[in-house]
Design brief:
By secondary structure, this protein is α+β, with helices and mostly antiparallel strands. The protein folds into four domains: 40 residues; 66 residues, Trypsin Inhibitor V, Chain A (2-Layer Sandwich), CATH 3.30.10; 69 residues, Trypsin Inhibitor V, Chain A; 73 residues, Trypsin Inhibitor V, Chain A (2-Layer Sandwich). 32% of the residues lie in helices and 30% in strands. It contains five helices and 16 strands. The protein has a four-stranded mixed beta sheet. A three-stranded mixed beta sheet has the order 2-5-3. Strands 7-10-8 form a three-stranded mixed beta sheet. The longest helix has 32 residues. The chain is elongated and about 120 Å long. The chain starts with a helix and ends with a strand.
Length: 273
């Protein structure tokens, strides 16, 4: 039985060997070998010749750092080094002025083919807002309108006016329609109304006691009674309230009572002037 099996396997192997030789000699096999040979030749040709031409003929360069430069200057530098500068995104940036390059791609120090495009993200500067017209408005309305635009009410000067009612804005030091950065303060001149000998009480809350006294004395008013209260949040001698309040009228040499933060953990105290 073993000899029969051995003869059978040997016969099959001979048949497979003959079939393989026939397949190799067939026209289809010759075509396949020819195609494979062409592919190998093209591969080595591209690898040895075309890549060398791409790198050596085109040239390679190290990408310079243009972040922080003005866009026009960055363009001139990249052009002079054989790169192709391109403006990418334009982005608002609180820390960088308008027209300054924020970032670049490819980044500094990368080795790339000369002529490569360099994309730059450029700053559009800070957010700007338009100053509203607050002329003729009350101080409270003016403050609300300015805050709605991202601005603040600045220092207030007072003067008499027959045209504007007492407590309204006569003029503003930054003209309406001007573009400014957010969070700046807009100073104004406020009407004291018709000159009847009285003065407009200024706002001294949030100021130190010595500064509040100076402001009041500058318009003919004096400090009246002072009530001291404790606080862990505010600095000692900070004025937190007053009477009469902002915008009210008072005759010269009249007293303005104040509530002031005292130092330490003392109980509420009172000083009468």
């Amino acid at each position: 039985m073993k000899s029969i099996s051995y003869i059978f396997l040997k016969t099959n192997r001979m048949k497979l060997s003959k079939n393989t030789k026939k397949l190799i000699k067939s026209s289809l096999a010759k075509k396949l070998f020819l195609i494979l040979g062409v592919i190998l030749i093209l591969f080595f040709l591209f690898n040895d010749l075309l890549m060398n031409w791409y790198v050596e003929g085109g040239g390679i360069s190290v990408v310079p750092n243009v972040a922080g430069m003005k866009y026009d200057e960055a363009v001139r530098m990249l052009d002079s080094l054989g790169f192709e500068p391109k403006k990418g995104d334009v982005r608002l940036d609180r820390d960088k002025p308008a027209d300054i390059v924020i970032s670049q791609n490819p980044s500094e120090g990368m080795t790339v083919k000369t002529g490569r495009r360099i994309y730059m993200v450029v700053s559009a500067g800070e957010i700007t807002v338009t100053v509203p017209n607050i002329k003729g408005r009350t101080i409270r309305d003016a403050q609300f309108q300015l805050e709605r635009e991202g601005l603040k009410l600045g220092s207030l000067d007072y003067q008499y006016s027959e045209e504007f009612p007492s407590g309204t804005i006569i003029s503003q030091k930054t003209n309406p329609g001007v573009k400014v950065k957010r969070d700046i303060s807009i100073s104004c001149i406020v009407s004291q109304g018709v000159d009847d000998g009285s003065v407009q009480v200024p706002d001294v809350t949030g100021k130190q006691l010595s500064e509040a006294e100076r402001i009041l004395q500058s318009i003919g008013l004096i400090i009246g009674n002072i009530t001291y209260i404790p606080s862990n949040d505010l600095l000692p001698n900070t004025v937190v309230d007053q009477y009469p309040r902002l915008g009210e009228k008072s005759l010269p040499n009249k007293k303005v009572d104040l509530i002031v933060i005292q130092s330490g953990e003392k109980k509420e105290s009172f000083r009468e002037n």
